Amino acid sequence: MPVLYRKSRLLRRSRVLWGSLTLWRPRLIFWCGALAIGIISVGFAKLADLAQKAFAATTASGQWSYLLPLVITPLGFTLSAYLAITLFPNSQGSGIPQAIAARHLREEEDRTRLLSLRLAFGKILLTVLGLFSGASIGREGPTVQVGASIMLAVARFGGMAQARGLILAGSAAGIAAAFNTPLAGIVFAIEEMSRTYESRANGLVLTAVILSGLAALGLAGSYNYFGTTSVAPTTIRDWELVLVCGIGGGALGAVFSGLALHMGQHVRRWAHPQPLRRMMMLATACGLAIAIIGIMSDGSTFGTGYEQAKGAVEGQELPLLFFAEKLLASFLSMISGIPGGIFAPSLAVGAGFGSTVGTLMGSGIALAAILGMAGYFSGVVQAPMTAFVIILEMTGDHQAVIPIMAVSMIGYITSRILSREPLYHGLSRVFIAAAIGARCAKELSEG
Fold first, then answer.
1. What is the dihedral of CA 380, 383, 385, 386, to 10 degrees?
2. CA count, 13 A, side-chain hemisphere, 105
3. Whole-angstrom Cα distance, residue 370 to residue 231?
4. Does 443 fall in a domain?
5. Into how many domains does the chain fold?
6. CA-CA distance, 313 to 309, in Å (whole number)?
7. Is the Cβ–Cβ distance between 347 and 356 less than 8 Å?
8. Domain match, 126 and 249 both
9. Radius of gyration over alpha carbons of the chain, in Å?
């Protein structure tokens, strides 16, 4: 009798637990948030593609249309900088530094300065505007800030205390859905976002990546970002590419990230007395310079660079100086202060560098482009595991697993020797200081 009583009591308790709204409400909100990241990421990608096509169509028809970027690009940059400063502060740049900074902040008010649904909307709007203006930016970094913002809102609406873990999960889901690279999303969260393995957050990250990935697959289908290739080193000269692309790509990436951090400090000091006016002036100047570079390169440096990188991965030789032109356009887009990421442009720069190296060495363009992407991207973000996994998933080149791993590691070591501070983490300190400074100023004015 006591045994039956205990069994019936456990059964009643389990029914209460399973049917408890308090128990299931946070889970349902979290699942809906993860699905929303996948759906919004696909919609964001469609809008970004439409914006690039609209810019290309506008500047490719008519006798004097090639001069239109001299008007459209500076005006678009100026408008984007104005809206970012006045309506959507902290939406500037990639969005990954904001997500990293938010994980280091303890106060909810400080986090919401960097991650919110309003900022997510502004990030999408202004990134699309930038691409419509011909900016050399990507949507993948912004998708990280959008995903993290959605998950921080989930923590608030669902009454969940794991804000740091949810930001991590949203960031991973954003990368996974943006590139259709679920493994890269998980590795990115561990290596780049947190710089350590957090076992308490692994369930959140995995669940978010799975659900956002399912939503993206349902809308966009299964695909490899750059298609599928199966090139691999077969000669001594091919293996020499590993060393050249690793050292050269890593050094080039270190130059980009080091200059970005250095110039960012000078720009902030210069703009401090009149931030709105001077940042709009800078954005206009950068937009004009990017328009000139785009016209000189016959339009190849405008936009994300996806078509050029995909062509190189498929074996099409790129112009010898394309990588230098694209790097300069990406650098100017970054320091201009408009919202936009560097993931896709970095892959285009790396593919262009690899194509140039392959042409000069007489090696296969496809293999050289893939290795160039791995070396340069690893040098920029100083995250070799992320670089290796994301490029492997985007190209499907399982025949070159070891060479891609080796190039990523060589690029990382080279970059660390030349530039000690990782780009995203260096930029995140700026947002941390600004968020804390804004809160302290508010407290002083109220007190």
1. -70
2. 29
3. 9
4. no
5. 2
6. 6
7. no
8. no
9. 23
Please say which residue of 220, 253, 275 terminates a domain.
220
On whether both 150 and 198 belong to a single domain, the answer is yes
Q: Are residues 245 and 108 in the same domain?
A: no
In whole angstroms, what is the distance from residue 164 CA to residue 114 CA?
Answer: 13
User: Is 84 in contact with 126 (CB distance < 8 Å)?
Assistant: yes
Which structural domain, as residue segments, surrounds residue 61? Answer: 25-220
Q: What is the DSSP letter of 317?
A: P
Q: Verify that 128 and 270 share a domain, yes or no.
A: no
Neighbours of 345 (CB within 10 A): 29
182 found inside a domain: yes
Write down the H helix ranges in 115-235. Answer: 117-132, 140-157, 163-179, 182-188, 202-220
- CB 189, CB 225: distance < 8 Å: no
Q: What are the angstrom distances between the C-alpha of 84 and each of 88, 130, 301, 337, 354?
A: 5, 11, 24, 8, 35
Query: Which residue, among 351, 357, 271, 260, has the nearest Cα to 312 in the 3D structure?
Result: 351
Residues in the chain: 447
Residue written as token pair 């006798």:
63
**At 41, which CATH number?**
1.10.3080.10
Residue 13 burial (10 A CB sphere; 0-12, 13-18, 19+): exposed
Residues 194-221: pLDDT tens digits?
766 565 667 778 888 888 888 888 887 7
Q: Which three-class secondary structure state does DSSP give residue 243?
A: helix
Q: Is residue 12 part of a domain?
A: no
Dist. CA 138–CA 130, nearest whole Å: 9
Indicate the pTM of the whole model. 0.89
Question: Residue 421 and residue 380: Cα distance in Å, rounded?
Answer: 10
**13 vs 170: which has the higher pLDDT:** 170
Q: Are residues 184 and 310 in the same domain?
A: no
Convert the pLDDT of each residue in 390-444 to its tens digit.
998 888 888 889 999 999 999 999 999 998 888 988 898 888 888 787 777 776 7
